[in-house]
Amino acid sequence: MKGLKAYGIIPFMPDLQDNIKIITALAIQEDLGTGDITSDLTIDPKQKSKGKIIAKEDGVVSGLAVVEYILNNYTSLTYKFKKHDGDKVVDKEVVVHLSGSTIEILSYERTMLNFLQHLSGIATATSKFVEKAEPFGCKILDTRKTLPGLRKLEKKAVVDGGGMNHRMGLHDAVLIKENHIRAAGSISSAIKKICVSPRFIDLKKKKGFFILVETETLKEVEEACQSTSFNVSVSTRMKNPFFFFKSIKR
C-alpha cells in the first residue's frame, strides 16, 4: 500500500490512512464492480488522455488524501496537485492535473469526485461558520452526526475548513446530555457517578480531559458549575439569545 504525501494525515488521526483504504475499497467495488463495461467496449485500451479536476465554485478543498490514495493504489495515472487539503479555491480553478489511460480516467473519476465534492462541501461550509464566529472569539466544533464509515474523513474536512474536532466517538470523551441527566436523576448525580468511578482516575490522566455538560436552562448551568471542583465545561441549547449570553457570562 503506497503512502500519502502532505495532503491529509493529521496527528490525532494516525489510522486515517487505514480508514481511507477501507472506505475507498468499498466505494470502488460498488461503482466499478467487475469493470467499466461501456469504456471497455468503446475505447482502445492503449488510448491516452489528459484530464483536469476543476472547481465549480469558490470554496475550500478537502478529500485530496482520498484522491491521491485512489490514484496511487488503483491506477497507473500520473498526476499533479495544484491545491492541498485546506486550501481555498475559486470557481474554474484547476485542482488536479491527470494523464494516462483514458479508460482508467473514466473508470475512477466518479469515485474520486464523490469524495472530493462531499468533503470539500463540508470544509467550505465549516469555513463560512468559522469566518462568522471569529470576531466573537468563538471556535467551531464538529459533532458525531456523520455518515457511517466517513466520520474520520468528515472530521478531517472540518479541520480543513478551519474548525476543530470534538470527540471522535462515545469512547474518548465524557458528554452528559439530556438523556443521561434524566437517567441519572440530575446533573449533579450524573457528575458524581462519574467522579466516584474507578475509570475516572484513568480518564483524568488524559491530556485536556474534562466533563462536558449539555444544558437547556440557567438553573442547569449553575448546577453543572457547582457540582464538582473538577474541570467541567458547559454547552447550552438555549433558544433565547439573552439567556444564552447570560449563561456564558456566568
Give the tags:
2 domains; 3-stranded parallel sheet; alpha/beta; Aldehyde Oxidoreductase, domain 3; single chain; TIM Barrel; 250 residues; 3-stranded antiparallel sheet
Furnish the topology, listing elements before pairings.
Blueprint: H1 16-32, H2 37-42, E1 48-54, E2 59-60, H3 64-74, E3 78-81, E4 88-89, E5 94-101, H4 102-133, H5 151-160, E6 174-176, H6 178-184, H7 187-195, H8 198-204, E7 211-215, H9 218-226, E8 232-236, H10 241-249
Parallel strand pairs: 6-7, 7-8
Antiparallel strand pairs: 1-5, 2-4, 3-5
Helix pairs in contact: 1-4, 3-4, 4-5, 6-7
Short description:
It is built from ten helices and eight strands. It is α/β, with parallel strands linked by helices. The chain has a three-stranded antiparallel β-sheet, covered by helices on one side. Strands 6-7-8 form a three-stranded parallel β-sheet. Strands 2-4 form a two-stranded antiparallel ribbon.
